[in-house]
Amino acid sequence: MTVTIVGSQLGDEGKGGIVDVFGDDADVVVRYQGGDNAGHTVVHEGEEYKLSLVPSGAIRGKVNVLGNGCVVNPRTLFDEIDALRERGLDPDVRVAERAHVILPYHRLLDGIEEEVKSEDDDEIGTTGRGIGPTYEDKAGRRGVRVGDLLDAEVLRERLEYAVPQKRALVEDVFGLDVADLDDPDALDVDALYDEFSEYGERLAAEGMTVNAGSYLAERMADGANVMLEGAQGTILDIDHGNYPYVTSSNPTAGGACTGTGLSPGVVGDGEVIGIVKAYLSRVGSGPMPTELGGVPGDTPGYDGDPEDPQTEREELAVYIRDEGHEYGTVTGRPRRVGWLDVPMLRHAARANGFTGLAVNHVDTLAGLDEVKVGHTYTLDGEELRTMPATTEQWGECEANLRTFDGWEATDWAAVAAEGYDALPENARTYLEYLEAELDAPVYAVGVGPGRSETVVRENPF
Ligand code: IMP
In which residue ranges of the chain is pLDDT below 50? Predict the structure, then answer.
């Protein structure tokens, strides 16, 4: 069977930890979208591993597949594999031949376009990894696929077509001089060809490429359990998210089909687990109706100091940010934080069809007298139970808060060992409210970063 893991908010819900816990029963862990924009931290036997591309199953000896819906930067891929090997692990990573390759010019263009947009305060706040430009080339049918790296002639042909266009963009549209760039080789066909054909040779030598859909179908026919690991989250989905403040792929459950080659029937036959953080965080720009305290440049109209709170709300933001370690895994940026946004979660539950929930960071909120949630929104005098479709409307929504009694910090590892009923009663009331609103049972509750700090109520496999 398959278990699909989807972020229900704005990414950083702690998907890696849940993949890690439920992944014990998986034979194969597959990422179906995104690239090295997806920071995940896994703690295993006291060791912390930070990965941005390789699935977290690599730490536990699973077969890991980067599906066709992913965009793969071979520099990051091999850096991460080599770093894991240096730490004594032997990661088994396969890459879909149909996945697209992030080339240095994609990162270059990601940076240039953000810079240009920032002149009007319109930047997305991307991770700068070249994700958007790579998906643009995929949709524009001028991309380089992983399979192309293995065929020197095809690779050269693709580069000879694409690179002059990118050079013209940089020079004629953005008015920059290629010679002045930090990495002028990013626009040099020969340099790109030399570096990337070598990656192709390494992929071939290590037998790393697969036809993802048929590989996975064959494994499943042999009885393998497959975990489909979404990166980012529902509100960063290019279709169902908060456009244009989104990533360029589909983290929602439909992406698990198109991004792997498994059919909707196969994915729908399995479980779809929504990962929820018990509050909300956001990296980058865009509305956030339940925001507590801002981060300059990301929060519209906010130019305060995120570390020097001026109001009670900002103090709460600083408290939650520090307790929850809300700093980007990939970028190190402080994240914006706010109360849980339930209209957002209702939207996510519908778009993904959650069959179960995993709620993380319940420990982070411990010690607060009161815990609030945005239960509904008010927009133009009307109460809304779910998110409106446009960013402008969402930005005008006012959250109607509902207040819950807080819960005390406790020995969370002991709670995890004892089980769900050992959770503080007020925390259980909060979780049961979520189950009722999202019409899905809570399968797991995260009460700390380690694997032993997860309360498992039901294993989806
Ligand atoms: P991109 O994916 O680098 O193009 O960035 C687009 C948007 O998605 C930006 O707002 C990023 O901050 C956000 N984003 C991308 N990856 C992640 C992630 O792993 N966690 C949280 N936000 C992310």
Answer: none
pLDDT value at position 328? 79
- Catalytic residue status for 361: no
Give the C-alpha separation, 296 to 298, whole Å.
6
Q: Is 347 a catalytic residue?
A: no
Q: What pLDDT score was predicted for residue 310?
A: 84
Residue the block writes with tokens 């005098």: 381
**What does pTM read for this prediction?**
0.95
Rounded Cα–Cα distance for residues 447 and 423 (Å): 9
Q: Is the peptide bond before 244 cis (omega within 30 degrees of 0)?
A: yes
Instruction: Give the model's pLDDT for residue 102.
Output: 98
CA torsion, ordered 315, 236, 133, 119, to nearest 10 deg: -40
Pocket test for ligand 1, best of 50, 73, 247, 250 (most atoms within 8 A of CB): 247
Q: What is the per-residue pLDDT for 284?
A: 80
From the CA of 232, how far away is ligand 1's center (Å)? 7
DSSP string, 136-158: HHHHTT---BHHHHT-HHHHHHH
Return the ligand 1 atom nearest residue 286 CA.
10
